[in-house]
Amino acid sequence: MATSPCSSSGVSSSSSSGLGADAGLEIRTRSVEQTLVPLVSQITTLINHKDKPKRSDKTLQAIQRVGQAVNLAVGRFVTVGEAIANENHELKEEMSVACIEARRAGETIAQLTDVASLDHPESDSHITIFTDKTGVVKAARLLLSSVTKVLVLADRIVIKQIITSRNKVLATMEQLEKVSSFQEFVQIFSQFGNEMVEFAHLTGDRQNDLKDEKKKARMAASRAVLEKCTMMLLTASKTCLRHPDCESARINKDGVFHRMRLALEQVIEIVTDSRPNGENEMAPISIYSGIKEFKNKVEGLRENLYFLSKENLSTMLEVILEHTEDFTDSAYTSHEHREHILELSKQAKMELEQLVSVWMQAQNQKTKDLMEDLEVAILKTCQCMNELKREVHSAATSLATDLLKYHMDHMVLKALKITGVEGNLEAVAEYTCKLSEQKEQLVEMCRLLRHVSGTEPLEITCIHAEDTFQVTGPQIISAAETLALHPSSKIAKENLEVFCEAWESQLSDMSMLLREINDVFEGRRGEKRVYLSLPRPGKHNANLKALKAVKLDTEEQAKIAKLGLELHLLTSDVDSETEKWEDQENEIVQHGQGMSSMAYSMYLFTRGEGLLKTTQDLFHQAEIFATEGTKLASALHAFSDQVHGDDKPLLLLEAEKLISLCKQLQITAKASVQGKSATFTKVDACILKTRNVMTLLCQLLPLCCKLLRKATGNGYLKPAPPWREDRLRTATNAHTPERRAETFGIKSLENHVTNMTFLESK
Fold this sequence. Notes:
Blueprint: H1 30-47, H2 57-87, H3 92-112, H4 133-178, H5 182-209, H6 213-242, H7 247-272, H8 287-300, H9 310-328, H10 335-364, H11 368-407, H12 411-422, H13 425-451, H14 456-485, H15 490-521, H16 554-579, H17 587-606, H18 615-639, H19 647-670, H20 676-713, H21 726-733, H22 737-741, H23 749-754
């Protein structure tokens, strides 16, 4: 396994400016891009200034200010880069070279923009941006390339931290696997818990920072496995220690350790962008993605009759129809759906034959009649594929709806718990067979849903769900067998409860996943999904009593329903406001969307739904929400530099209000409480304070949108927002994994560069 990613990263730029960094560099994280965007903006502003014969003093001073700002920022940035190089000797040589290049390029830009004091900037005695534009472009290209290298090298340090954290977790897991005394297990598990929390925070930040949505979804799936397996590892290990000669207890424990190792390995594969033995990841093809690609090719014939062969098109259809066999061969597909899918498959072949016939004629003789016939053939082929897509979607989702409804009473799990406590081995064997049947049904459901999920992240979620049912089923069976063999064992009973809860939780998640798949199919926005970090460190006492997952009961849900509904309405308002922004990649919008997403998950909690299962989950989410609000306040302060007149103090006042409300929420979320009544009061306070923040956010977003339009609409010249070299500085100042992990993280540079505002000479 490779333990370090490709060291390079890259940036692209608009052709109009002539800018371009190293084409071999690839940026994989948000924060690296976000750090570069303002720098690109400033440089592009310089390069794209209008060459007019008359230049005012105001224009000359503005050009000089931008050049000096770039040089100063680069100087501070390089100082931090050199400090990082000194702390990390394996990167020192590469980092030092990149820092020298960046400093030299920054100084060159400053010299070429030193024009404010010159009456005739184009005079022969002084080379400037007006006389040597090629020099500026060259210096800018070198600067972007070298700064990107510094950032990506620094990003390697974050990756190294994740790998080091994983290695610590693996080493402690090995110790846990070998312990033979309960006392030794208690001590090591306490250490293991803290290491898992550190790993969770590092990988959680990295997950949010990834550009690739597919990798993001895979990371979320792996982290979900680790979250659930941490509690499983505790109870399975305790059961094995209590019953050392029990074979089913050992099988149960070994299964948990194996699954955790696989999840840890996958996290490192994603982080380092590598796979064992250089294997390529073979992503399974879904019917949806196959139909989408096939239709694109067919519709492409309108523009170009020669860009692909008829064999290619036929092969693509064959692959799609092969995948429909997953439905027609399934024992769980209804007779009606099976017949419709077979009929549509046959019709698709006929439509393609007709299309190919007209297509070949049109290649030889491009008459008006033939082109009209081709258009009809294209429409009929695409319509047939749409009907096939609709039919497989109906087959998969109706099966999922029926199965989830049928198994939601958890009768088999309840029976296993009862017969296990009774020590009835014969009854346990009977119900384990029923659970195996249920598992096969749910695994088949996941496979069919994957074909119609509509997006790659949802496909990955389906695959994760399939794996969860596939693995958890046998683990429940081994846990039930252990309890039946030791019916008076409290720890064996607790262990079975933990595995059953994981099964129930996955069934609940499937209901949410099904809603998302339907939303994508119908063109609606899917439900908001927020990743959950693993729980924060808990105090493990000598008896290793697990923290009980506290949920709201029906009465408490009723009390808090009104507040939850208000929160839901506010998230809709915030979403409406963010959709009004032309630049969806704007930092203010990004933070606003993130906060809305988290608030929505908190609303779902008040209804007993969603990914936040316990009060502890809610409190942790409230902390993350408050942190995101503080980041938004920082972004507002940065934005205020572009605002003039009475608007600026108004914006800063609102930012201070936001900071104050977020601090209040953070204090409430972190406050320690005991007892059911006190816990509910804390839940109520967290939801209330979150609502207050969202209310303010609803006022802030339209204000910022108006001020941004006002600022960009003015004709005055203003340097671009300051390049935030402080992102890099954080890497050397931060001492905690959480702080370090926040340092680097994506937007499309191309979008930013092509939308750059040009310098107007006035």
